[in-house]
């Protein structure tokens, strides 16, 4: 068993002192950096793939289950599963009741506000417009809010990468979103997508400092469970059809979508995202928003028989280019000691 209940690779990174890191031989340090980079790229790819397909699962689920109840059951189940896995591995829970009070605002932003507003907004706005707003706003909001909170640096390469990504979003979804005039309901829906995206970005930045005290697995488990229980309670009090949904007679399509949202999505992808936020920072991790819409379009072609036009293809290539540029490691200026060594 490793310290703090973290996986061996994460615990080693958390417990190593600065002196131990700097005193390691250059070749060993370089080898560890290459391994870490490869692992993080795999985590990033998993997040992009799974979250790129969640639109299909959510649309199927909210057609049969009240949105807040669906999300509440999803996140409650995910939290319980993660806590059970941690207990089975013999890891002692470190988050106390007092810590949960501190985590409450983060949970409110990441899960409660984000999920309720997003799912109800999808009833009034097309998936194309929702994808435009979310994909374009996420990296920009994470970078600007992170800069204001002292967590991120605004560099020329990051600005160029975000600009390229936004241009790709407009190419991919712009023609679809621009068809016809927006009704008042669509404007409300679009505003809801903005609110939900900003809530998630703000919560992602607030939770990052807490990862210095607690393992990401435990943070994900506790926030998932707290947010899920809050959603279920609110749904039972205010949402029409919530009590009837607890009969669980949803139909196999909704069950299949819900299970996908819980296990690969709420458990797997959320955990990977927390790790990326801790290791990369929220702005760089948030560039998944330039890749996930591409995955969503490909899923639509393969599963729903949708077609891709010229603008859509150009948009996907442009968005992937922006994400690739954002993922490139930044060059660190050489120090005088490095120059002397050369």
Descriptive account of the structure:
The protein is mostly helical and 342 residues long. It has helices at residues 8-15, 18-22, 26-52, 54-62, 67-88, 97-121, 127-148, 156-177, 184-207, 216-238, 242-245, 252-280, 282-285, 292-304, 310-327, 336-341.
Helix-residue proportion = over 70%
Low-confidence runs of at least 5 consecutive residues: 1-35, 332-342
Count up the helices: 16
Distance between the termini: 42 Å
What order do the helices and strands come in, and which of them pair?
Layout: H1 8-15, H2 18-22, H3 26-52, H4 54-62, H5 67-88, H6 97-121, H7 127-148, H8 156-177, H9 184-207, H10 216-238, H11 242-245, H12 252-280, H13 282-285, H14 292-304, H15 310-327, H16 336-341
Helix pairs in contact: 3-12, 3-14, 4-12, 5-6, 5-10, 5-12, 6-9, 6-10, 7-8, 7-9, 8-15, 10-12
What's a concise summary of this model?
The protein has about 350 residues and is mainly alpha-helical. The chain has 16 helices and no strands.
Using brief descriptors, characterize the structure shown.
single chain, 342 residues, mainly alpha, 16 helices, 76% helix, disordered C terminus
């Amino acid at each position: 068993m490793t310290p703090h209940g973290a996986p061996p690779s994460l615990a080693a990174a958390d417990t190593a002192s600065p002196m131990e890191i700097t005193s390691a031989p250059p070749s060993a340090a370089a080898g560890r950096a290459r391994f870490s980079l490869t692992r993080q790229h795999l985590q990033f790819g998993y997040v992009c793939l799974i979250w790129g397909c969640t639109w299909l699962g959510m649309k199927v689920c909210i057609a049969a289950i009240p949105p807040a109840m669906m999300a509440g059951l999803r996140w409650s189940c995910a939290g319980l599963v993660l806590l059970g896995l941690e207990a089975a591995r013999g890891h002692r829970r470190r988050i106390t009741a007092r810590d949960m009070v501190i985590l409450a605002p983060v949970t409110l932003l990441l899960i409660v506000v984000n999920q309720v507003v997003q799912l109800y907004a999808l009833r009034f706005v097309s998936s194309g417009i929702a994808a435009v707003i979310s994909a374009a706003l996420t990296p920009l909001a994470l970078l600007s809010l992170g800069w204001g909170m002292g967590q991120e640096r605004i560099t020329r390469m990051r600005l160029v990468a975000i600009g390229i990504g936004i241009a790709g979003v407009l190419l991919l979804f712009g023609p679809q979103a621009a068809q016809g005039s927006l009704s008042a309901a669509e404007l409300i829906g679009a505003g809801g997508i903005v609110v939900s995206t900003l809530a998630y970005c703000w919560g992602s930045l607030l939770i990052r400092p807490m990862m210095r005290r607690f393992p990401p697995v435990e943070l994900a488990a506790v926030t998932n469970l707290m947010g899920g229980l809050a959603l279920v309670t609110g749904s039972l009090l205010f949402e029409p059809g919530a009590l009837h949904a607890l009969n669980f007679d949803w139909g196999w399509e909704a069950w299949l979508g819900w299970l996908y949202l819980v296990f690969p999505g709420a458990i797997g992808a959320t955990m990977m995202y927390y790790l990326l936020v801790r290791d990369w920072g929220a702005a760089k991790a948030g560039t998944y928003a330039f890749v996930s819409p591409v995955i969503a379009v490909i899923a639509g072609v393969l599963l729903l028989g949708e077609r891709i036009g010229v603008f859509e293809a150009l948009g996907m290539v442009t968005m992937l280019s922006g994400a690739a540029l954002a993922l490139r490691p930044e060059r660190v200026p050489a120090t005088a000691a490095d120059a002397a060594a050369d």
